[in-house]
Amino acid sequence: MGTRKISCAICGSDEKQLLTIAHGNRGLDYIAEDHLVMVCRNCGLVYLDPQQAEEDYIRYYETADYAPITSSTKSMLRRQSYRRIQASFLIDTLERLRPERSTSGSSVLDIGCGPGVLLHYLAQAGLDVCGLEANPHAAAFAEKSFGLRMMRGSIFDNLLPEAAFDVVTSTASIEHFTDPLSAVAIMKRALRPGGLLYINTPDLLGMVLKKGEGHCFKFVHTYYFTEVSLTNLLERAGLRVVRSWTMPPQLEANVLFPGNYCSGELNIVASVDGDAASPAVPRRREAVASIVAAHAAGRKRDRLHAFANHAYRYRPIALVRRILARAFPPKPVFESFWRADGSVDASVFPPLLLQARQARMEAGA
After folding, report:
1. What is the chain's mean pLDDT, rounded?
2. Which residues face 165 on adjacent strands?
3. I need a surface site. Which of 2, 205, 207, 309 has the fewest CB within 10 A?
4. For residue 355, is it within any domain?
5. Under a CB-based contact definition with an 8 Å cutoff, are residues 282 and 110 in contact?
6. Maximum CA pair distance of the chain?
7. Across the strands, what pairs with 109?
8. How far apart are CA 332 and CA 314, in angstroms?
9. Has residue 43 been placed in a domain?
């Protein structure tokens, strides 16, 4: 086990203050038990400091248990049905930002693709897809179940060819990197001129602490972004942000279904157009006070749901909850589906959410 002190990945400052403490190491003796979540006083970036050594994270991601080991293709598609929404966002964005090009046949690389569900949906839409995944079990699942072309390893392993892809995607992975600025620079090099980088990550200001803070703040999440800080990161790498939107937290005040509400997410598309200049300092700064206030409000708001999630771990209470849950089904959490351009399609998202919810109930969640 080893840890290292780090500076802010965006502005390089060492001035920071404590936001909270992430507890837990998942029983791994080479991972520290407690992790300090710090806020940069200069630009507002939130990150773990100190962090585990890079080799500790590599060891974890290469050996961690992974759901695809025991999942069927059908159950994985059902479990990750939200990937269809991300795929539709991406395809819609490509069609709007590049109307002169055909979306079909565009080459896409997904960084940290996991079992490959997003790539599966993109391939169905006619895109030429490829994935990079560090966990060998997940990579094998993607190859066997969906027939995907895969590269195995970390983004820092120098595996990516230069100027080879029209689109690079990173969904729920940027928050795991030990050096996100270098990671984004590597993604940029893999893009052709005029290529697009799509990043999706949890929104720090829209976190729902439904399972307690440990569900969001943990050693595998080395960085926590807001729209401002993620934009700053991309600009520091010499990219030009062309579209960004947030999906706000969707809340449901039903203690029988404390897990059926979702944290907000950030979605950003940036372009490699050859004209973007890397700013020496961030153009905007996130106010530290707003981050601290949002975190305190989330803890207070979600205290009941966190308690309910904990209580349902006990079999007698869980049995009563399942009986009541069938008698009093919940209302849909998402009342609308947010497209990339900010418009709404209420016909798409609720069925997907209800499908995922039904799968959880069948599994005895």
Report:
1. 83
2. 191
3. 2
4. yes
5. no
6. 62
7. 130, 168
8. 26
9. no
Q: With beta carbons less than 8 A apart as the criterion, state whether 201 and 230 touch.
A: yes
CA 257, 258, 263: angle at the middle one, nearest 5? 120
294 close to 205: Cβ distance less than 8 angstroms:
yes
Q: How far is the C-alpha of 289 from the C-alpha of 294, rounded, in Å?
A: 9
Query: In the chain, where do the E strands start and end?
Result: 3-4, 16-23, 34-40, 46-48, 51-52, 107-111, 128-133, 150-152, 165-171, 191-202, 223-224, 240-247, 265-271
d(CA 9, CA 66): 29
Domain count, the chain: 1
Would you call 346 helix, strand, or coil by DSSP?
Answer: coil
Domain span including residue 125? 66-362
Q: Which tokens belong to 322?
A: 């399942």
* Residue 106 forms part of a structural domain: yes
Angle at 244 between CA 218 and CA 119, to 5 degrees: 70
- pLDDT tens figures, 72-124: 898 888 778 778 878 887 888 888 888 887 788 899 999 999 999 999 999 99
Residue 16 falls inside a structural domain: no
Provide the CATH number for the domain around residue 250.
Answer: 3.40.50.150
